[in-house]
Design brief:
By secondary structure, the protein is mainly α. Helices cover 52% and strands 0% of the residues.
Length: 67
């Protein structure tokens, strides 16, 4: 997770049911953790899909190493 000094306080309206479902899915205890992890995950997925779009039809099968 990001360093605490980069965090900024924000205020949002969020559906409680959705927040509870996300908290359960992410296995975290606080609402703040749910919001932070969800936003970070979305940003990471966007970077991944941009990579996928750019590399479409250019990568050969087996060319990426698995960690």
């Amino acid at each position: 997770m990001r360093a605490a000094n980069k965090l900024k306080r924000k205020s949002f309206f969020v559906d409680e049911t959705t927040l509870h479902r996300a908290k359960k899915a992410l296995r975290v205890k606080t609402n703040a953790e749910v919001i932070r992890l969800s936003v970070e995950w979305i940003a990471e997925m966007e970077e991944f899909w941009e990579f996928m779009k750019k590399s479409r039809r250019t990568l050969q099968p087996g060319s990426l190493e698995r960690p």
